[in-house]
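Anyone have tokens for Adhesin transport system outer membrane protein? Sequence:
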Amino acid sequence: MRRAAYLAAGVALFALAGCMGSNDGQSGEAYEAAPTHGLNAANTQGSHLITSLQARRSVLPEGSSFDQVADAVMAANSRAAEAELRAAVLRSSAAQKNWLPQIGPEISLDNMGDFVATLLVEQVIFDNGRKKAERAYAAADVEVAAASLSESSNQRVMDALKLFITAEKARARAKISGQAAADMADFMRIMEARVAGGVSDSSDENVLRLKLNEARETLNADMETAATALAELNAMAAYPLDDLRGISDIAPVPEGTEPLSVMSAEGERSRTIAEAKIERAGLLPSLTASGAANKDDSSGALVFGGGMLGLGTADSLGAADASQQAAEAQIQQAYEDTARVVARLQQQLASLDRQQQNTGTLAAQAKRNYTLFQEQYEAGQRQVMDVVNVYEGMVDSQLEHVGLRYDAILTRLSIANEYGLLVNGDAV
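Reply: yep, here.
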């Protein structure tokens, strides 16, 4: 008898829901039919945003040192954002089933002091699109989490590449400053011999000793910078990268690529719109079919509910609509912010390229001047300090030139990072 009563309640409820009907074609005013289940329930397959993220290709040359750095740090990534994406996917998958009836027990005491178990069943018939909006909100939550994961992954690779380029730049400088320290030591030996022979003044020896110490200090600073950057990089990587060397050219950003910040704003817009629809539906009436069955009785009913209408209801509905307009404005703001950043980086890159070309010319001229002064010194036409001063200028121009090359590459990587092109999308 008990089982028959439960079954009768369930049949009565679904029959009632069928009589009311679910008008799926009325733009969410009546209840929507059951969506697809399974992994696709998260709408990841139908999401343009997630598809676009997955299709992104890294601008880092395959197999290059940059690519190896990216692989190493991604292999060691704790990926907190990935855990959030998984949670969002599970929430979306659960939301796709919110059209199903809700079934639950209720246990109470009767007037005789006995426990009475009742089976409760509820089915939404009409909710002004609330359940549909809840599914849209959960799907948009997945998009926001996916964009966040892509941003965090690209930023992690960018941070690692900064460290690697810092180390490479310091090692390139150390090669120049190391040679300079060795040459200054040779000049110092010559000067010491000349002072001992009474040919040169001791003041020149003191000045040259200071220059030698400065050259050695520059070398030590470059070596320490490289060691510090590599230590931090190795802390991020799954395996040591001390032996990795070399830099690569970076391909330009493909035309039409959307910045990550804009894609994140698009996901936020969809979520905000869904949230506004949920809020709006909560202010309007709804209709629910319910049924209850226990060992003694079974019943079914239609429940008319929803938000209470008042003088402020119109303003509340207007606020929900206004939040959608604000979400649209956020996308335009994201476009503008990214455009400003990219424009600044591109101008900076153009300046660095120009400076690199100019300093290259100056470094070559300084080297020719040093060679000329060296020949004149050997011919007895120049003093040692004349040659040392010209040599010091040549070293400074070389250090400036080599540094600009790494700065330019770092700027190109920064532009790629704005578009999320440092990691392959399907790998993220």
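The two ends are 56 Å apart (CA to CA).
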